[in-house]
Structure formats: structure tokens, C-alpha cells
């Protein structure tokens, strides 16, 4: 018996949080019963094609959602050709567009999955989110969210109270993060951090991650312990601003990396 194929609309794959969550679930589901097809914008930067295909999944590239006149017709055609029974969209308030296409294509199960809310520091994005929020349930048959707060923000308090929103906690594979002293020593040696007190942070450089405040905290830590090193791992729109702040505070030193 062929597995059920679910079209997972993930937008732009850039190795970010939403894509990581979907991939974590994909690696651990019973793929003999359920398979994922990933619907990805053509301006994505990191697509784990080899892993997805090795697991039995497929990748379909579509125009970016900014080009709605091409995006929606491409999705309608794709959904019809593959005769999907389920389309699961992970692009938050923007899900209205692929779910509209899914309805036009006759897809019976259309899932809107919210992974975020409006946040300070993203004025343009917030304007778009608030404009699209009233349409969140128009084309969806099922609602999902990563938390109760995210569910209530997009689908409303009454939908939450009626139990209409399924909460999917963002699961991770704990084995990948188990402490390994050998790996620790190797990485410290490779980065020249032997004997150092290291504070690390992994995350996109953006307002929500608040690296600016973390740098301020580390400045105080460094005053008390000059052997301390702060390592910031990631990229994003605020990276240049954070780097400039670090340069001013460190005076060209190497305590920030």
C-alpha cells in the first residue's frame, strides 16, 4: 500500500526554525504510512535535497510567494497533478495563499499551521500579518500552532476554547545534543578556546533573538572574568549591527566571536 503523501508548504528553506521543525518530524514518522513532499520557493538558499530524497520525499520548486500571479497558478497545477488529499502550510498568515490554491485544486484537507506572532522590530512584516490574519481560517479545514499563544493569536480565543486548534510542540532529537567530552575538546582545540570560559549562542541575528542584550550582559561578565569568550553563531538582518557593537565594546579584542 502506497503511503499518504502530504504537501508540506514551507516557503523559503534557509535552514531556519520552521524548516528544522518539519524535518525533525519527517525523520521520525513512519514513512511507510506517511510521506512528505516539500513545496519550496525558488529563492530558497538551503534545501536539504539529498536527505529528503533519501527518506523518500520529493521537492517541488515554485515561484516565490511575493509573485502571487505566478505562485498561486503554479500551486494549483501542482496540487492537481499530484492529487494531494492533504496540504499542510507552515507559512503562518501567508498560508491563506497556498490554502486558497489547495481549495481551487479540490484538496479536501487544508491545514493552516502558525509558528509565530507579531513581534516588535518588524514593522513591515507586522503590517502584512495583521492584514492577512482575518483570512487565516477562510480556506483552512484544520488549524495547528506551535503553542497556545500562537494558536490564539492567529485563530482566536474562541477557536482555542472550542479545541479547534491542534498544538504541535516543537520537538527536537535530544540524542543530537548529548554531551560528548571528546567532541568538546576537539572543537575547543580547533577554535583556540582551550582553557577559556565560553558562553555560546546559536540563533538568527534578529530582534527576537536579542543578541544586542546578550552582548551587554557579556560585557559585565568579561569585567569579572577576562578569560571569558562569547561566541555568537548564526546570520541574519541584525548581524552587521551586532558586529559593529562588538567592535566598539571590545576595542578590537577577541573576546567576542
Short recap of the structure:
This protein has 257 residues and is α/β, with parallel strands linked by helices. It has helices at residues 17-28, 49-54, 68-82, 96-104, 123-132, 148-155, 157-161, 181-190, 211-224, 239-250, and strands at residues 4-11, 34-41, 58-62, 86-89, 109-114, 142-145, 165-167, 197-202, 228-233.
Descriptive key words:
Rossmann fold, 7-stranded parallel beta sheet, 257 residues, alpha/beta, two-stranded parallel ribbon, 2 domains, 10 helices
Write the layout of secondary structure elements.
Elements: E1 4-11, H1 17-28, E2 34-41, H2 49-54, E3 58-62, H3 68-82, E4 86-89, H4 96-104, E5 109-114, H5 123-132, E6 142-145, H6 148-155, H7 157-161, E7 165-167, H8 181-190, E8 197-202, H9 211-224, E9 228-233, H10 239-250
Parallel strand pairs: 1-2, 1-4, 2-3, 4-5, 5-6, 6-7, 8-9
Helix content: 25-40%
Number of domains: 2
CATH fold label of the largest domain: Rossmann fold
Superfamily (CATH H level) name of the largest domain: Glycogen Phosphorylase B
* Radius of gyration over C-alpha positions, nearest whole angstrom: 21 Å
Main sheet overview: 7 strands, parallel
- By CATH reckoning, the class of the largest domain would read Alpha Beta
* Helix segment tally: 10
Number of strands: 9
Q: Low-confidence parts, pLDDT < 50 over ≥5 residues?
A: none
The termini sit apart by 52 Å
Query: Mean pLDDT, as a whole number?
Result: 93
* SSE string, helices as H and strands as E: EHEHEHEHEHEHHEHEHEH
How would the global form be characterised? Answer: globular
Strand arrangement, largest sheet? 3-2-1-4-5-6-7
